[in-house]
Amino acid sequence: RAKELNRSSYSYFTREMGVEIRERVRMMHALRSAFEEKRLFIVYQPQIDMRTAKPFGTEALVRWKTEDGELIPPDKFIPIAEYSGLIINIGEWVLRSACFELVLIHELGLRDFRMSVNVSQAQFSHPHFLQSVANALADSGVSPHCLELEITESMAMTDPDFLVSSLEKLKSMGVRISIDDFGTGFSSLSHLQKLNVDKLKIDRAFVNEIAADTNDGSIAKMIVKLSQSLCLEVIAEGVENQEQANSLMAFGCNQAQGYLYSKPLNKLDLYSWLQKHL
Ligand code: C2E
Ligand code: MG
Ligand code: MG
Ligand code: MG
């Protein structure tokens, strides 16, 4: 009886796993074709100085539109890109496109405007990564200090020595580094102190809490304090209402990204948005 049960649950699990793996493989092939057929595109979300309500930069966010016109969110396809290795080419394309776009923005007269680009773990640890950043800078001719690479806190935990030395090399190229989704990755504070980074991005989960009565944004406040004592810049993600913006400014955080100011915009909409908000 027990044996029978085991056997049937075994085949149940393998069948389920088979479905899951097939679905992943299907997504992977679809993603590869989408990339080759240029159905991936990039949107840009403005980053704001809340004191003046003026933009100083933007974050590049990748999008996938299928042939049926369905939009697949990056949270769904970035893991597949990572797992399949496609992230190396996709990430490099995002980085290069963002650099060339920033040059155009600079040519409008916005000389110090910044561009943030997300970098995934697999991309960062790839042997060609530093060279691909150097190439993107050289080929676009963009000022390195206007490019900001966003790494995640969990990356800081995997191979500390490799991370420290890679960050030093990126810093010597002149690019800026921020830690995305800060507060969600459980990295140790003593470790953070050793990393040569410029900025912390408060995860939107902590910004979200600010509105709730149960929690007056104590974690967001703590991250702002931490950034101040480490002499780092700080930006809040996912700011959706004025109440959150006011609390953040009261905590000492003046930079924000969120629907209160703008959702991520395609290239053309970014240009008209910038014209209205400068
Ligand atoms: P992220 O880097 O933390 O980006 C912020 C996410 O929050 C974006 O989701 C953005 O659209 C969303 N967001 C911005 N403001 C608000 C707001 O006020 N309210 C709410 N609810 N959401 C807001 P998105 O574009 O879906 O991207 C999700 C994640 O996918 C990104 O999180 C990033 O980790 C990853 N991702 C996106 N593009 C790339 C890329 O080019 N390369 C890599 N490696 N990862 C990427
Ligand atoms: Mg990001
Ligand atoms: Mg984030
Ligand atoms: Mg995120």
UniProtKB/TrEMBL annotation:
Keyword Phosphoprotein: yes
Keywords assigned: Phosphoprotein
Domain EAL, chain residue ranges per copy: 24-278
Descriptive protein name: EAL domain-containing protein
Full-sequence portion shown in this chain: 439 to 716 of 716
